[in-house]
Amino acid sequence: QVQLVESGGGLVQAGGSLRLSCTRSGGIFRGYAMGWFRQASGKEREFLAAITRSGASTVYADSVKGRFTISRDNAKNTVYLQMNSLKPEDTALYYCAAAGRGLTTTPLEYDYWGQGTQVTVSS
Length: 123
Prior knowledge:
Blueprint: E1 3-7, E2 10-13, E3 18-25, E4 33-39, E5 46-51, E6 58-60, E7 68-73, E8 78-83, E9 92-99, E10 112-113, E11 117-122
């Protein structure tokens, strides 16, 4: 079975940076596109970024474009989300997910999800 574990969340001040990591075990890491999502308290789950199996292509939500960068290291079975210029509205539980179908922004098309890591941005 596939298991995803996120890490790197925490408390930062507005304008600061964090790098989230998501490590996968089970299955073949190269065989899945990867994505990052977040869910703030009382809000719907929101797509943030996704990356193809090879890492050659990426897609971002408008809300994070230019501030967040997704990358992957297939040798380490790990996907990253570098978050810069953080804002209080970025406060949420952040999830990584794996999609066997390839690059997608749709939550229902992702097959596996991590447990989430909390990011809190203070003003």
